[in-house]
Q: What sequence folds into this?
């Protein structure tokens, strides 16, 4: 039997509209940067897509820079904004303790290779950043801070961060936010947030893999990581990927059923509380994305649970990074006060536009047994 | 049966998993991550559990068409195998870590977890056989004697043997490689692993020196006369002849051999070749792979190295120690090694050599 998919935060099915747009554009000849008829036709489709995506995220079309992934957009933003700051003698990078590795790792790289000082804003047990810490930091060192990068919502727990307040505190310091998980799931407006840069990824919203975007304020110049043909404001060279971009746009302009997904999530949480009383949801009291649930099952080990769930036809995840295929204890959960052991006893279930109550029911039909067996496998 | 195939990323475990699937079992592949900080790549025949090995294992599982997972056993491996290895060397003995890994990891931690998860046993690519006979399921040598690994499996109890599946025991290594090729497994020509997997440099003495220090001590002859100095007694092995660092030659120019390592006084005792000869060995912590050995002397064979000869002997169990008396003297036997008793090709049991005469 096919497995039930509850890992939509990892990637979610390509929407039919995106598939149609993608396959159509794949058959269209023309480099969007060419000046002839073929090139102009491809450019037209691409710029239509750019405008549609800009409309969805509340920015100007010229503020959309297409990249090959959310990771690439994060790298361009963090490194570029840091280099801009460094040129003015500012060497501090401020990030949160719960960032995705696509921010954590470039920050670490800036620290070891470029001489940056990286400061992590801690989070509370609720998973929300400590605004007092940030306020105090800015009060003391605002002249030294090159960039602040705080994710819009967390990919493991779904907890939403107060970006408006971060921007208000930051005043003139440029702020970047990784909004990969938030886009289309919760209200998100680049203009209203007031950030300098914001990251998007297509495959989290029903678009294809391998396409993302950096939303970067008009006329804000930033050094490039890739040099070449000068596409995308000379910030991201490389032949424009018209099929992926039009498919991204097709997916991004579809309605995401937030209320329905949230309803499924809440039914799922309620069922877990009933069936497995000692399980707890991380960040349960916080404002969260509609589709992500992170649950700790005390006395288990997540890699065993994933194997058992997979065997029972459920595709879930820990949401955290792997090192040599071994799940590391999630830095997100550790930052929220977990121990190594409890962090390693946690799973992420994430629902998407195509999820149904039948999916929730199926997962709940196998989960209590999986937890029981998982506990037995870890009794020393 | 529902089985867990331990997949190292090598050719043997890949073919073993494929054969188990073909035999009609429900199989999942598991790669054991044993190193806390794995290396990215393998260097030749050295090391295992590199990231490259786990990729090879995953690829083999995908080609075979079975689910694949990685189990983190780094802590268990460190505590049960690496620490034991260091402790044995610091006590002047020569341990065999592969044996310890089978005893404590593959057929203990992994088998226990497998059973708790509802699986019936563990499949590995070891060259050994099992048979069902009057004594139940028993452990036997592989058909390919040059590849036989029954020695390093001799620490398995009957209970563990019952949960072990060795699909390769009836085939030669050459044929396994050919079979891997036929099955489209990319690891068909991957070099065999040798040496100690957690010493990726292959420099065991250097690795030990880094961890146990290199305290200088005396090298003495059998009369206690100091004839040289060593840098860490544990880097010597009984029977070793080369690189002793002895500065005083023997009267007749005959070579000297390491006879004894005394950890407490950090002394290495050397002497003539004939002084290495032993005829009796005693082993502690015996494990029986079938019916228990009794105090009644029995004829059989004892093997003291992974690929050593099977030496004719009489053996018995005195209630504490397993004792084997050799028909012919043996030169250079290190304590800490396993003595494995065979009845023909059946593994009777094993013990850790603690005393020789």
A:
């Amino acid at each position: 039997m096919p497995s039930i998919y509850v890992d939509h935060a990892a990637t979610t099915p390509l929407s039919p509209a995106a598939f149609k747009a993608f396959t159509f554009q794949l058959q269209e000849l023309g480099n969007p940067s060419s000046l002839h008829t073929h090139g102009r036709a491809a450019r037209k489709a691409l710029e239509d897509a750019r405008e549609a995506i800009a409309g969805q995220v509340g920015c100007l079309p010229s503020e959309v820079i297409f990249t090959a992934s959310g990771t690439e957009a994060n790298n361009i933003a963090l490194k570029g904004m840091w280099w801009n700051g460094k040129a003015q003698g500012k060497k501090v990078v401020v990030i949160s303790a719960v960032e995705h590795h696509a921010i954590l790792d470039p920050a670490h790289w800036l620290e070891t290779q470029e001489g940056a000082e990286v400061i992590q804003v801690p989070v509370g047990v609720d998973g929300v950043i400590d605004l007092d810490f940030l306020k105090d930091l800015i009060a003391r060192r605002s002249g030294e801070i090159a960039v602040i990068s705080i994710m819009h919502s967390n990919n493991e727990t779904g907890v939403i961060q107060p970006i408006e307040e971060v921007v208000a505190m930051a005043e003139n310091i440029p702020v970047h936010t990784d909004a990969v998980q938030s886009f289309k799931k919760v209200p998100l407006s680049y203009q209203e947030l007031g950030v300098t840069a914001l990251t998007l990824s297509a495959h989290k919203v029903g678009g294809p893999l391998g396409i993302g975007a950096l939303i970067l304020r008009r006329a804000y110049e930033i050094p490039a990581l890739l040099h070449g043909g000068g596409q995308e404001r000379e910030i991201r060279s490389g032949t424009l990927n018209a099929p992926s971009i039009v498919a991204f746009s097709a997916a991004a302009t579809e309605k995401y059923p937030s209320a329905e997904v949230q309803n499924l999530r809440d039914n799922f949480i309620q069922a877990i509380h009933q069936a497995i009383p000692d399980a707890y949801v991380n960040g349960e009291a916080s404002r969260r994305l509609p589709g992500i649930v992170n649950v700790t099952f005390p006395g288990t080990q997540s890699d065993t649970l994933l194997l058992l769930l997979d065997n029972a036809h459920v595709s879930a995840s820990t949401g955290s990074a792997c090192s040599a295929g071994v799940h590391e204890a999630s830095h997100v959960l550790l930052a929220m006060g977990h121990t190594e052991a409890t962090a390693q006893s946690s799973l992420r279930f994430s629902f998407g536009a195509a999820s149904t109550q039948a999916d929730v029911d199926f997962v709940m039909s196998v989960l209590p047994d999986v937890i029981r067996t998982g506990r037995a496998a870890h009794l020393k | 049966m529902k089985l867990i195939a331990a997949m190292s990323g090598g050719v043997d475990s890949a073919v073993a998993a494929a054969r188990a699937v073909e035999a009609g079992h429900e199989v999942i592949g598991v790669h054991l991550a044993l190193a806390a900080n794995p290396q990215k790549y393998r260097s030749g025949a050295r090391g295992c559990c590199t990231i490259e090995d786990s990729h090879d294992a995953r690829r083999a599982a995908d080609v075979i068409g079975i689910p694949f997972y990685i189990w983190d056993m780094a802590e268990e491996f460190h505590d049960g195998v690496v620490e034991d290895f260091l402790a044995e060397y610091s006590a002047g003995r020569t341990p065999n870590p592969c044996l310890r890994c089978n005893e404590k990891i593959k057929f203990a931690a992994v088998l226990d977890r497998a059973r708790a998860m509802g699986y019936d046993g563990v499949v590995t690519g070891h060259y050994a056989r099992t048979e069902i006979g009057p004594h139940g399921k028993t452990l036997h040598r592989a058909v390919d004697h040059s590849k036989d690994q029954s020695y390093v499996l001799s620490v398995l109890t009957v209970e563990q043997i019952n949960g072990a599946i060795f699909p390769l025991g009836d085939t030669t290594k050459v044929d396994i490689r050919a079979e891997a090729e036929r099955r489209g497994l990319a690891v068909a020509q991957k070099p065999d692993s040798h040496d100690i997997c957690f010493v990726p440099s292959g420099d065991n003495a250097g690795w030990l020196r880094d961890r146990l220090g290199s305290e200088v001590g005396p090298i003495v002859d059998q009369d206690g006369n100091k004839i040289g100095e060593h840098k860490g007694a544990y880097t010597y092995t009984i029977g070793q002849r080369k690189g002793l660092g002895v500065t005083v030659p023997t009267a007749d120019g005959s070579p000297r051999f390491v006879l004894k390592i005394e950890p407490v006084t950090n002394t290495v005792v050397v002497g003539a070749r004939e002084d290495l000869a032993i005829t009796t060995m005693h082993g502690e912590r015996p494990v029986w792979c079938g019916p228990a050995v009794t105090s009644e002397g029995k004829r059989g064979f004892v093997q003291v190295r992974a690929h050593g000869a099977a030496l004719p002997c009489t053996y018995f169990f005195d209630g504490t120690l397993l004792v084997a008396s050799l028909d012919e003297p043996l030169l250079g036997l290190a304590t800490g090694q396993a003595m494995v008793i065979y009845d023909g090709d059946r593994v009777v049991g094993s013990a850790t050599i603690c005393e020789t005469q």
In short: The radius of gyration of chain B is 21 Å. Chain B touches chain A at residues 28, 31, 33, 38, 51, 54, 58, 67, 69-72, 74, 113, 116-118 (CB under 8 Å).
